[in-house]
Write a structure and sequence with these properties.
It is a single chain. The chain is built from 13 helices and 13 strands. By secondary structure, it is an alpha/beta fold.
């Protein structure tokens, strides 16, 4: 009887230890690293949407969010991402192209979700694009229909003969948009000229060159431009040259109109993808890139008034 009691006690203790270990593992918090390239309204909204969806789907008590900002420096993205990899986080959110490129280079095992990425094929140098990256990377795109943006320029400024395209040449997704916009505007018999800057130091001088030789300026979804809209506005508004922007944040700072998506919405969609991966075991390599559910024509009432442009019908005020 004593032997039976001892054996039973050992089994009970062993099972208790297993259950305790299992409970501990199941209650272990997940860790999600967020690398955001720079602070500006569009990227901030995407990050907030991601966090809201993640917390709603998993619970704040079940996840640690390590949110870091690269202050506009791609090299800082690599440092931040490498730190996440060293910590073996459960998932990485890469907000903007340099963050995505750093994450894709740093790990092939940790799930990586991008947001505020215009074109994944250009960002990751993928040929034969099918809509799915096929590795540990997926996410959402902030691309608004470029053909519709070109049509909007023609609609708003039918007499414009030359559009200057202002962008950062070091941002791969900006270059992609420029190349596509040139094609669409050419089909509308509108001449284009590129005006590129490499960093914040030459934004104002390049914007001045664009204003001096353009009827209209187009700015794609460009992170450097988005962080320097005041400098651009200080040039284009006195020059009376209207800016059509690829996203609402840039338009709010220096533009007259935009065909914009909701960055909060694409961030939220990315957060839902993260929940599917972390909670439901979805395979990130099989998740296609998602896009914003809708786009909206918007105008900047203040800048329109300063330039003497009447608020166009069918456009929503920012």
């Amino acid at each position: 009887m004593k032997k039976l009691f001892v054996v039973s006690l050992v089994l009970v203790l062993a099972l208790g230890s297993v259950f305790a270990q299992g409970a501990s593992e199941s209650s272990k918090k997940l860790t999600v690293g967020i690398c955001q390239l720079v602070q500006h309204p569009a990227l901030d909204a995407a990050t907030q949407g991601f966090k809201d969806a993640l917390i709603e789907g998993i619970g704040a008590e079940n996840v640690n969010i390590d949110e870091q900002n690269a202050s506009g420096e791609p090299a800082n993205c690599a440092t931040i991402i490498n730190g996440f990899v060293a910590k073996n986080v459960d998932l990485i959110l890469a907000n903007a192209t340099p963050a995505l490129q750093a994450a894709a280079s740093a790990t092939s095992t940790i799930p990586v979700l991008g947001t505020s990425i215009t074109d994944y094929a250009s960002a990751l140098d993928i040929t034969g694009w099918t809509g799915t990256v096929g590795t540990n990377v997926s996410g959402t795109s902030d691309l608004a229909p470029l053909a519709e943006q070109a049509d909007m320029i023609k609609e708003l400024f039918p007499s414009a003969k030359k559009v200057g395209i202002l962008f950062c040449s070091s941002e791969a997704n900006s270059v992609y948009q420029v190349e596509e916009m040139e094609k669409y505007l050419a089909s509308l018999s509108i001449e284009t000229e590129r005006f590129s800057f490499t960093d914040t130091n030459d934004v104002a001088s390049v914007a001045q060159k664009a204003a001096d030789s353009s009827d209209v300026i187009y700015i794609p979804t460009d992170n450097t431009a988005a962080s320097n809209t005041e400098a651009i506005a200080n040039v284009v508004i006195p020059a009376k040259v209207p800016v059509v922007a690829g996203e609402e944040g840039i338009c709010q700072g220096c533009g007259v109109a935009t065909l914009s998506i909701s960055y909060y919405d694409i961030g939220y969609a990315t957060g839902k993808m993260a929940v599917e991966i972390l909670k439901n075991g979805a395979d990130v390599s099989k998740m296609p890139i998602q896009f914003a559910p809708q786009v909206t024509k918007k105008y900047n009432a203040s800048v329109c008034a300063q330039l003497g442009i009447e608020a166009p019908a069918g456009y929503e005020a920012i």
